[in-house]
Design brief:
Elements lengths: L3 H6 L11 E3 L6 H19 L1 E5 L6 H12 L14 E2 L3 E3 L9 E4 L7 E12 L3 E2 L4 E3 H7 L2 H10 L1 E6 L8 H5 L4 H10 L3 E4 L5 E7 L2 E3 L6 E3 L13 H11 L6 E5 L7 H13 L1 E2 L8 E5 L3 E5 L2 E2 L3 E11 H4 L9
GO molecular function, one term: dioxygenase activity
Protein name: TauD/TfdA family dioxygenase
GO biological process, one term: antibiotic biosynthetic process
């Protein structure tokens, strides 16, 4: 006899340019369905890099928190966030605050940390009237499509994230570090290989060097794993970039990325990265009640511009240490 679990997995629908889709019929409710299907769902993520479950009928943050816990256990805290989030109980967060008319291009969540989530969980409570998909892209495929000389440079140097915290753009110091106590922030930075400098006006500037390419912890496949394009100045809308340069100066943008050795990353390189991502993007419009699980190392994700209200909750799970993947990175090296 074929179990109901196996039968459900056999129904994962694959389509060109689409996200692997699994229809669900949770007769006993979403939490019970999640408990029953945890292992095969995790197996589907391992096979496809992500899976979108449709039909669960998730109805609120409390319902989402229970489903996330059944599928992933304890959830991680969001530290070093680049944008503000609303915090719900049990480690569930809102999507990052970001203008609805601006895309969040492909990236791997918290890939600039020394410890990052291996699994992302998304739950849609309210779908927008237009756009707003959480699109995905396979990082080994992206890596293979990049020029060999560019890959070699990033592999040798890694990438550098620079941040200038303020109270207007992006997450504040307190939102990012979970405290506004200077001593605690400094201790955190020292422990996580982040260079820091307090400014005369009380602002904070940081620099952290990270690996741009890592082996997957299970398969060993090399993955393009970073936020080089997303947090770079050349991905911004030109008018927004010009405004930020005028207000903060070219060397004090809220966030920017460089080659690991400190050289600027040219507009042509950022455009190339975004073109490769777009050529390897899969998307499925959200429907209210949807659940999506994403392997954060193998699969990059984005958020497309949208119109109308959009409510997507997020969980971060399965922490992975960079030093376990790249031993030389235990002090923030490549």
């Amino acid at each position: 006899m074929v179990s109901s679990t196996s039968a459900s997995l056999a129904e994962v629908r694959l389509s060109p340019g689409g996200v692997p889709l699994l229809p669900a019929e949770p007769g006993a409710g979403a939490p019970a369905w999640a408990s029953e299907h945890r292992d095969p769902l995790r197996a589907a993520v391992a096979e496809h890099g992500c899976v979108l479950v449709r039909g669960l009928g998730l109805s609120g943050p409390a319902d989402v928190a229970v489903v996330f816990e059944r599928l992933a256990g304890a959830l991680m805290k969001d530290r070093e966030a680049f944008a503000a989030r609303e915090v719900y109980p049990a480690g569930v967060y809102s999507s990052s605050a970001w203008p609805a008319n601006q895309p969040m291009c492909m990236h791997h969540e918290l890939s600039y940390r020394l410890e990052f989530p291996g699994l992302l969980l998304f739950a849609c409570l309210g779908a927008p009237t237009e756009g707003g998909a959480t699109a995905v892209s396979d990082s080994p495929t992206v890596l293979d499509a990049l020029p060999a000389d560019l890959v070699r440079r990033f592999e040798q140097e890694g990438w550098l994230l620079t941040r200038s915290y303020n109270n207007e753009i992006g997450a504040t110091v307190a939102e990012s570090f979970g405290t506004d106590d200077r001593a605690e922030i400094e201790n955190y930075c020292r422990a996580h290989a982040i260079e820091f400098e307090w400014q005369p006006d009380g602002g904070l500037r940081t620099r952290q060097r990270r690996s741009a390419i890592v082996p997957h912890p299970v398969t060993g496949r090399r993955c393009w794993f970073n936020q080089v394009a997303f947090l770079n100045e050349w991905t911004m809308d030109p008018e927004i970039r010009e405004y930020l340069v005028d207000v903060y100066g070219a060397d004090a943008l809220p966030f920017n990325t460089r080659f690991g050795g400190g050289d600027p990353i040219g507009e042509d390189v950022v455009a190339l990265l975004n073109r490769v991502y777009e050529a390897n993007t899969a998307r499925e419009p959200w429907q209210a009640g949807d659940l999506m699980l994403v392997d954060n190392i193998r699969t990059a994700h984005s958020r497309e511009p949208f119109e109308g209200p959009r409510e997507v909750l997020v969980g971060l799970a399965d922490p992975v240490r960079l030093a376990d993947l790249v031993p030389s990175a235990d002090a923030g090296a490549r």
